[in-house]
């Protein structure tokens, strides 16, 4: 076991875990932030996407030891009350069906809008490639990102 200290959603955190424990399990099991979902466990679906120092990463693929003294943001840290433009756009565009992938989709989209305030449709599609929606709501996801960019 080793102590890992980092900032998550603006708060200091310290967890004692095996250094190779995936960040996903630290977030969900140790810190009880269950908005980040386990999807495939191999970094292929994007359900577990969080930000580390502002960059979208698959939390199932990064070990806890790699976030030492870094900043992690989960879906819970994007907005405490659902007021982030992407969260509002997701509702307005009726994106979720089962909803399982949505936190990862939103976190991936948030990285895009941080870098590019007005992405084209092609830029959105390219950036979101690799985040899988089992329900196939991709057109709604794109519309929600376009709406969030307009309304942000």
Essential attributes:
single chain, 152 residues, 5-stranded mixed β-sheet, 5 strands, globular
**How many strands?**
5
Average pLDDT, rounded to a whole number, is 97
- Integer-rounded radius of gyration: 15 Å
Task: Specify the structural class.
Answer: alpha+beta
Please describe the biggest sheet, giving its number of strands, its sense, and whether it closes into a barrel.
5 strands, mixed
Question: What is the rounded distance between the termini?
Answer: 43 Å
Order of H and E elements: EEHEEEHHHHH
Strand % is 15-25%
Q: Give me the side-by-side strand order of the main sheet.
A: 2-1-5-3-4
Q: List the total number of helices.
A: 6
The coarse overall form would be: globular
């Amino acid at each position: 076991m080793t102590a890992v200290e980092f900032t998550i959603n603006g708060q200091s955190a310290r967890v004692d875990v095996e250094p190779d424990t995936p960040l996903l399990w630290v977030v969900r099991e140790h810190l009880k932030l269950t908005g980040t979902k386990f999807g495939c466990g191999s970094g292929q679906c994007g359900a577990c996407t969080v930000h580390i120092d502002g960059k979208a990463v698959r939390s199932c693929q990064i070990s806890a030891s790699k976030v030492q003294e870094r900043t992690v943001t989960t879906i819970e840290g994007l907005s405490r009350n659902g007021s982030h433009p992407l969260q509002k756009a997701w509702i307005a565009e009726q994106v979720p069906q089962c909803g399982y992938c949505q936190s990862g989709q939103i976190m991936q989209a948030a990285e895009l809008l941080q870098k590019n305030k007005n992405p084209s449709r092609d830029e959105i599609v390219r950036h979101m490639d690799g985040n899988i929606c089992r329900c196939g709501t991709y057109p709604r996801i794109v519309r929600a990102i376009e709406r969030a960019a307009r309304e942000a």
